[in-house]
């Protein structure tokens, strides 16, 4: 069942009610959040854009949770480039909800059955099951939607060509899932596929992560899709998400070019000077909202990414369709997918 169903006006109504409830929920249970609301004088909102946001960076500086220490089931961490990390606290209910909703989002393009899965990463990255990096959480979260998993890289982070070939010999004649961070798919799958004449035509690629390493090579998102289509991989879906709003991903539609918001989430683009909401076509600072964060106040977050809404109710799926344009100048690079040991 798809989670891309609500037209924007209907979604606004549903989200405003649920998110307003979450504001009060976290105000009662998270003292630092209550102090922030008191300081900014929040007394209610009549639109999603009017809800109080937290800068995503705040999770690097404060322990923000709306559950008791004895209720903490899992702690997720972001990977930053300065040593600062966000800590995200989940109880069992929140962890189960984010897994379920991530599954529903992904199944919109995969269908209900678990597919054979090729992971463009190394198993060595999954070391501590209790505390994951953003990359580890992403890989592990996505791995639950596949079966017969094969890792495309060995424990040293080098391409395991024989493992990829064996996977394709066994599963290549039926639909299969490929997951990896964007630059790793480019460096470790696209080039290997091209150079070895491998057939990925039955693959469905779900990928994410910054384009930073690819921009250095002058590879745009459009070029990425075009080149992969050239080796037979035509079903590709980028997504945008962050550990601070775990379980919520904004998924690229079948036509490509735009990200879409699931029914339980949305985006607001703000003017970086005035904080006012900007109309479609005007780039600004991206705010992400989601009803999933119940164990910590991550329901309305101002990111450090620039974005633009392209249109509303006029694409593959209802609601806003948008693009992420990159980091705000001078913002710390979050580095969630760029911090891996490059093979020498």
Would you write up a description of this structure?
The chain has helices spanning 8-29, 31-40, 58-61, 92-110, 134-143, 161-171, 182-196, 212-215, 221-230, and strands at 54-55, 74-77, 87-90, 115-122, 131-132, 146-153, 176-181, 203-208, 235-240, 250-252, 259-260, 265-270, 284-290, 300-312, 320-327. The protein is of the alpha/beta class. Strands 1, 4, 6, 7, 8, 9, 10, 11, 12, 13, 14 and 15 form a twelve-stranded mixed β-sheet that branches. It has a three-stranded mixed β-sheet with strand order 3-2-5. The model is unreliable at 331-344 (pLDDT under 50).
Q: How are the SSEs placed, and which strands pair?
A:
Elements (H helix, E strand, L loop, with lengths): L7 H22 L1 H10 L13 E2 L2 H4 L12 E4 L9 E4 L1 H19 L4 E8 L8 E2 L1 H10 L2 E8 L7 H11 L4 E6 H15 L6 E6 L3 H4 L5 H10 L4 E6 L9 E3 L6 E2 L4 E6 L13 E7 L9 E13 L7 E8 L17
Parallel strand pairs: 1-14, 2-5, 4-6, 4-7, 7-8, 8-9
Antiparallel strand pairs: 2-3, 9-10, 10-11, 11-15, 12-13, 13-14, 14-15
Helix pairs in contact: 1-2
Keywords:
344 residues; alpha/beta; 3-stranded mixed beta sheet; disordered C terminus
Fraction of residues in helix: 25-40%
- SSE run: HHEHEEHEEHEHEHEHHEEEEEEE
* Largest sheet, strands/sense/barrel: 12 strands, mixed
Shape: globular
What value does the Rg take, in angstroms? 20 Å
**Mean pLDDT, all residues:** 88
Structural class by helix and strand composition? alpha/beta
- Residues in β-strands, percent: 15-25%
How far apart the termini lie comes to: 44 Å
List low-confidence stretches: 331-344
- List how many beta strands DSSP finds: 15
- Total helical elements: 9
């Amino acid at each position: 069942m798809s989670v891309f169903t609500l037209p924007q006006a209907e979604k606004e109504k549903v989200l405003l009610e649920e998110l307003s409830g979450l504001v009060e929920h976290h105000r009662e249970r998270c003292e630092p959040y209550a102090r922030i609301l008191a300081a900014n004088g929040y007394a209610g909102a009549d639109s999603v854009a009017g809800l109080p946001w937290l800068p995503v960076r705040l999770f690097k500086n404060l322990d923000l949770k709306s559950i008791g220490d004895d209720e903490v089931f899992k702690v997720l961490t972001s990977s930053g480039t300065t040593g600062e990390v966000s800590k995200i606290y989940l109880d069992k209910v929140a962890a189960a909800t984010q897994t379920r909703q991530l599954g529903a989002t992904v199944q919109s393009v995969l269908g209900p059955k678990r597919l054979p899965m090729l992971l463009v990463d190394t198993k060595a990255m999954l070391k501590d099951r209790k505390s994951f990096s953003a990359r580890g959480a992403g890989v592990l979260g996505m791995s639950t939607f596949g079966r017969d998993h094969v890792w495309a890289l060995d424990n040293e982070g080098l391409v395991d060509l024989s493992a990829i070939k064996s996977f394709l010999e066994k599963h290549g004649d039926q639909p299969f899932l490929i997951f990896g961070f964007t630059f790793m798919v480019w460096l470790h799958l696209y080039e290997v596929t091209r150079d070895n004449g491998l057939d990925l035509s039955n693959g469905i690629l779900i990928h994410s992560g910054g384009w930073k390493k690819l921009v250095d090579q002058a590879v745009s998102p459009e070029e990425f899709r075009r080149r992969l289509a050239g080796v037979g991989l035509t079903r590709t879906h980028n997504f945008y998400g962050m550990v601070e709003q775990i379980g919520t991903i904004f998924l690229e539609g079948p036509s490509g070019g735009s990200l879409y918001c699931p029914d339980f989430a949305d985006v607001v683009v703000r003017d970086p000077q005035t904080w006012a909401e900007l109309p479609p076509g005007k780039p600004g600072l991206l705010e992400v909202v989601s009803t999933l964060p119940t164990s910590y106040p991550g329901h309305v977050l101002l990111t450090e990414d620039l974005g633009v809404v392209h249109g509303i109710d006029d694409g593959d799926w209802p609601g806003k369709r948008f693009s992420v344009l990159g980091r705000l100048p001078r913002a710390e690079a979050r580095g969630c997918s760029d911090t891996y040991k490059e093979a020498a």
